[in-house]
Design a protein that fits this description.
The protein is an alpha/beta fold and 297 residues long. The protein is built from eleven helices and eleven strands. The strands form two sheets. The protein has a nine-stranded mixed β-sheet with strand order 1-2-4-3-5-6-9-10-11, with helices on both faces. A two-stranded antiparallel ribbon has the order 7-8.
Length: 297
C-alpha cells in the first residue's frame, strides 16, 4: 500500500500530520471519526492532477497530537481554517467524509469568503439515523469495552464500512490498527462520538441539514448506495434542502466511495470543482423532481 509522504506542521501548539500533493487550486480533505488521511489515499494521486490536495489528520486522530483540550464542530472547523491559512491556502475547496462532512458544512457556512466549493461524502450531520453500533458505542462503559483496539476489531469496522470485502487488505488493517492503538486514540474517538451521537441517533447539536440552504458555495453530495453507517436517504434529503446541489450515488458502495470507486470519484469531484461543462449525465430523468443528479453507472 503506497502512501504519500507525511508532513508535519504546528497549529495552535498542536503537531499535525498532513499530506500535500499536486498543484493548482487548494482542495482540503477531511476524514471521519476514528480515521485519518488514510481514507483518501486511493484518490489522492488522481485529485492531485488538477488540485493542490491537502489532507490532514485532525487532532486526536491518525498521527496528529492527542491534545488535552477537546474540539467540538465549530472548534474543529476553526482549526482546519487555521491549518489552511498556515499552509498557504487562503481560499479553498473542501471535501469531508462522514464526521468530516459536518466540519466541511461548518466551514462552508462560517468561512464562506474562503470556501469556493463543498463536497460531502457520506456525511454525518444530515439526519437523525445512524448505524446502531455507533449508538451502542456511545453508551458509557460499553463503549470503552467495544473500542479496545485490536486487528480483529479493525477488520470488523472495515467490514461495516466497505461494500467490497476484497479491499480489506492486511496492510490496510495493520495501518489502521497502528493509528487506533496510539495512546489516547480510543479516548478521543469516544469523546468525539458522544458529542454527536447517543442511543437515539445523531444529536441535534451536530445536525446541519436545515442550514444547507444558506450555502453560498456550490455543493456536491456523494454517497454509497449500500452505506451501512449513514443511510443514503440523508443524501436525498440534503439536496432537497439546496435544490442547486448535485448528487451522485455510487452503486455497490459503502461509506467510503473514494476508496471503493476512486476513478469515478476523482472524475466527478474534478469535473464539479473545476467548473467543467455539465455532462449529459447531469440532466434529470423525465419526471424527476429532485435536484440534478449524476446517474450511477
Amino acid at each position: 500500500m503506497e502512501l504519500p509522504d507525511d508532513r508535519y506542521i504546528h497549529i495552535d501548539g498542536h503537531r499535525v500530520r498532513y499530506w500535500d500533493e499536486g498543484s493548482g487550486p487548494p482542495l482540503l480533505l477531511i476524514h471521519g471519526l476514528g480515521n485519518s488521511t488514510l481514507v483518501w489515499h486511493r484518490a489522492m494521486a488522481g485529485l492531485a492532477r488538477r488540485f493542490r490536495v491537502l489532507a490532514l489528520d485532525l487532532p486526536g486522530h491518525g498521527y496528529s497530537d492527542m491534545p488535552l483540550v477537546h474540539f467540538r464542530v465549530p472548534e474543529a472547523a476553526r482549526f482546519v481554517a487555521r491549518f489552511a491559512e498556515a499552509v498557504g491556502a487562503g481560499t479553498f475547496h473542501v471535501a469531508g467524509n462522514s464526521m468530516g462532512g459536518i466540519i466541511a458544512i461548518e466551514l462552508g457556512l462560517e468561512y464562506n469568503d474562503r470556501v469556493t466549493g463543498v463536497v460531502l461524502v457520506d456525511s454525518a450531520g444530515l439526519g437523525r439515523k445512524i448505524a446502531w453500533i455507533l449508538r451502542i458505542i456511545s453508551l458509557p462503559v460499553l463503549g470503552e469495552f467495544l473500542e479496545r483496539p485490536s486487528p480483529g476489531r479493525v477488520r470488523q469496522i472495515l467490514k461495516a464500512i466497505l461494500y467490497d470485502p476484497e479491499l480489506i487488505s492486511d496492510a490496510l488493517v495493520e495501518e489502521m490498527f497502528q493509528q487506533r492503538n496510539r495512546p489516547g486514540a480510543a479516548r478521543w474517538l469516544l469523546w468525539f462520538l458522544r458529542t454527536g451521537v447517543n442511543v437515539a441517533g445523531q444529536r441535534q447539536a451536530v445536525q446541519r441539514q436545515r442550514r444547507l440552504g444558506e450555502f453560498a458555495a456550490p455543493l456536491l453530495v456523494l454517497w454509497g448506495k449500500q452505506d451501512r453507517i449513514v443511510p443514503v436517504a440523508h443524501a436525498h434529503a440534503a439536496v432537497a434542502r439546496k435544490p442547486d446541489a448535485r448528487l451522485h450515488v455510487f452503486d455497490r458502495c459503502g461509506h467510503w466511495p473514494q476508496m471503493e470507486h476512486p476513478e469515478d470519484f476523482v472524475r466527478i469531484v474534478t469535473d464539479f470543482l473545476a467548473g467543467a461543462e455539465t455532462p449529459a449525465a447531469l440532466t434529470p430523468e423525465p419526471g424527476d423532481s429532485q435536484a440534478p443528479s449524476l446517474k450511477s453507472r
